[in-house]
Structure formats: C-alpha cells, structure tokens
Amino acid sequence: MADRYLSFTGTAPGRFLTRRLGLPQPAKLRRDALDGGLLHLTAGKTDLDLAPVLERTGLAPDTDGRPAAVVLDATGVRDVDALAEVHAALHPVVRSVATSGRVVVLGAPLDADDHHQAAAQQALEGFTRSLGKEIGGGRTVNLVRLTDAAAAGSTLCFLLSPASAYVSGQVIEVGPADGSAAPPDAPELPLAGRTALVTGAARGIGAAVAETLAGQGARVVVLDVPQAEQEARRLAERLGGTALALDITAADAGERIAAAVPGGLDVLIHNAGVTRDRRLANMPAERWSSVLDVNLASVLRTTDALLGSGAVNRGGRIVATASIAGLAGNAGQTNYGASKAGIAGLVRSLAPRALAEHGVTVNAVAPGFIETRMTAAVPLFIREAGRRMNSLAQGGLPVDVARTTAWLAHPASGAVNGQVVRVCGQSLLGA
Ligand code: NAD
Fold first, then answer.
1. Successive 10-residue mean pLDDT values, the chain, 431 residues
2. Nearest CA, atom 37, ligand 1
3. Smallest Cα–Cα separation from 320: which of 236, 205, 214?
C-alpha cells in the first residue's frame, strides 16, 4: 500500500500546503547512499581510537560543512560540567547535517561507583532521544555505549550507513572485544559460506530478511507453513537457497530444522509471527494461545532444541522479532504484546549464557510500523496514525528491518549481545 501522503509532500505544492497547515513533513529517506562526509567531534577527555573504525565506514572526512554523518565521542563525559561540551560540539553543526543524515553519540557504560559519571552518561540518553525527535529531515540520532572502538566497528558502520535509515532514538550497548570484531575477508559478502534460516520467510519482512542475507552471501533456508510452500519455494529458488515447509509450532520443529541443515546453522532468524487482535474482555482462550504459541513458545522451544543439540554453530547469531507493541503496549493486543515482550525477556536472559556456552549471540529487532500486508490491512485512520506517529513521520519498509537484522547477524557483531533494537523511526509509542 503506497504512502500517498509521503509522495504528495515530495511535490512543491504538497510541501507548500502541508507546511501551511502545520502537517507532518516526512522526508524521503535515502536508502542507497549518504550524501556527504563525516564529522568527528569530541566532548570530554577521551582515549578512544576511532580513526580505523571510521575509515571503514567509507565516508570521507567532511570538508564542505554539510556532513552526512556526525559522530560525537562523549565517552569521556563524567560530570554535568562536561555535558556542556556536548552542547558546545553539536550546537553549531546540527543545522548543517545533510537531509537523511546521521548523528551518532558515543557514550560509556554507567559507572556503578560514580553517580556523577552515571548521571552524565544517562543524560546522553535523554539528549539523544530528544534530538532525534526535533532534528527532522529524515535524519536519525542514536547512542552507542561502548568500551572498545574496534568491537563496535560493525555497529558504527551500520549506523553510519543508509542501512539504518529507519533506526532512530536507539541506545545500543556494545560489549568488549570478543575476537570476532575483525572485518570479514570479503566485506560485501560477509555471510559467504554461512547458512541462515529465516522463519515466516515466504512473504513480508521475513522474505526481505532472506533476500538481504542471501545478498550478503548466505545460503538461506526459507521456512514457512505448508500452506505457503509454493511462495517459499519460489523465493528460495530465486535466492539459490532451499525451502522448508514447516509449522514452527510443531513439537519437533527444532529437530526437523536441524535435520534440514546438516552442516549446522550460522544464523537463525525467528521472524514468523501472527496477530489475533481482540480486547481482553472479548478474547477467547484460543486467540490468546495461538498467538503466544507462534510468537513466543515456538521461539523458546526451537531455540532450546537447536542450541541444545549443537545445531547452531559457534560464532552463530540468533535474531528474534519483537515489536513496539510489546514494548509500549497496544489496545486490542494483550496477547500479541505479551508474546513480543516475552521475546525481549528471552533475549536479555539467554544472551550472556548462549555466548558463554555456545559462542552464539542472541538479539532482537522490534519493528514499528512497517509497510507490509499485515499493516495494509489496518483501517485507514489507524494506518495513517501509525505511519506518522514517529520522528521520521512515515512507515518503514521490510528492507529496513532486514538490514538491521543483517547487522546483528554480521560475523563482526559478536560484541553486540542481548540487545532489543527498535526499527520504528523512533515511534512515539512507548518512546
Ligand atoms: P506477515 O503476516 O506478512 O508474514 C508472517 C509470515 O509468518 C507469513 O509468511 C506466515 O505464513 C508465517 N507464519 C505464521 N505462522 C507461522 C508458523 N506457525 N510457522 C511458520 N511460519 C508462520 O507479517 P510481517 O508483517 O512480515 O511480520 C513479520 C514479523 O514482524 C512478525 O513476527 C510480526 O509480528 C513482526 N512485526 C511486524 C510489524 C509490521 O508492521 N509489519 C511490526 C512489528 C512486528
């Protein structure tokens, strides 16, 4: 379903009229390339060596005062006085950031023994989220908490690229170096030689994820329910992968997946999901349990079976799909909201253990309003509200979720673990 309002505001009369009426002004997001150079700023005393990582972004240093990306290293901000340097660094340049540009603030983990440092570093979170809401023009603002620049390389490359077009207002924590941060030999095909399975991949977001991972070199297994087998097969053929017709709620789904990937899995994407909306007072038990079963119980069951049997290779990546409905709540979706919040709990608890015991990271993406068949079916006014009620004033595309998933699945993302990253244009819901 095309976003006609976005097309209209892209015309001169549309821009004029919507401005006069004080209506939202969505900018057409750049998903191909960023337009300009990179400006590297510092607040507080820092000893982070960012140069080699920033070089890998492919962005040249800004020379014309119209940067496509600004990186502010605020890891050394330890008190309120040093916060003034954040203002001093960004105040003069914020207006000049190119349309659809990026602002990435780098912070440090909160120091449990120093409440002044913790206050100043937490302040960066409120700063980032507020700037994201006011900056406009399709620009995004995110905060990365890190200790080691090299370990955060894949994250900075993602956030400073067009792949993160619909990711804004996020706080991402990157752990210490884990030995996997080195860039792969063929940077354009980081998943070459790896096997990725995507559930619910016959259409929508899952199909985009399968396509993106295949485009990065992965052998993909397109899993979907038997009723969608034809679509799954067609996609798998196009991507040079295989299809697996399987209802993910089957008790033996984990064993059947393991049997389908004799060499083991390197990337496991839990994307299959359903909605059965009804207010709680009108919700029969069947609607509750079917949603909980597909969206949460089957994710727990198959993850346990695949990790337990050693079917996920060391260095593997698991990415589950939450939703902003699970983080913010949504009327009529107590079942769906519960299932998606459950995904966040699963990720946070399992991530450290899965990494320690199996060398596998576990993260989640939480999409906001994404233009798919699921959201095309939403009544017009609710759909329009969903599209506009975010800092970018438009819906995301399946490819935005897919590219975020690909960053988490990247071989160099081993230090990103236990994160729930919203792909929602900084939705105002539960912001
Ligand atoms: P979709 O309905 O277009 O696709 C979901 C796919 O999952 C379908 O191909 C379906 O056949 C498959 N599936 C459903 N039950 C299954 C089962 N038991 N076993 C195997 N496959 C099964 O949905 P979408 O919009 O592409 O959403 C994908 C994921 O993203 C879901 O988890 C959804 O909850 C989540 N999400 C979507 C949005 C959005 O705006 N579209 C927002 C937040 C979260």
1. 77 74 81 94 94 94 94 98 98 96 98 98 98 97 96 96 98 84 70 97 97 98 98 98 98 98 98 96 98 98 98 98 93 96 98 97 97 85 88 96 98 97 90 52
2. 367
3. 205
Active site residue 5: no
Of the residues 199, 271, 423, which should be mutated to test ligand 1's pocket, given the most ligand atoms within 8 Å of the CB? 271
Asked if residue 294 has its Cβ within 6 Å of ligand 1, the reply is yes
Cα 281 to ligand 1 centroid, rounded to whole Å = 25
Query: Which regions of 95-253 does DSSP assign to beta strands (E)?
Result: 102-107, 140-145, 171-173, 195-199, 219-224, 242-245
> β-pairing, 171-173 with 195-199?
unpaired
Name which residue sits closest to atom 32 of ligand 1, judged by CA.
273
Burial of 126 (0-12, 13-18, 19+ CB in 10 A): exposed
Q: Whole-model pTM above 0.90?
A: yes
Can you tell me which atom of ligand 1 is nearest the CA of 204? 26
How high is the ipTM of this complex? 0.99
- Asked if 408 and 196 count as a contact pair (C-beta separation under 8 A), the reply is no
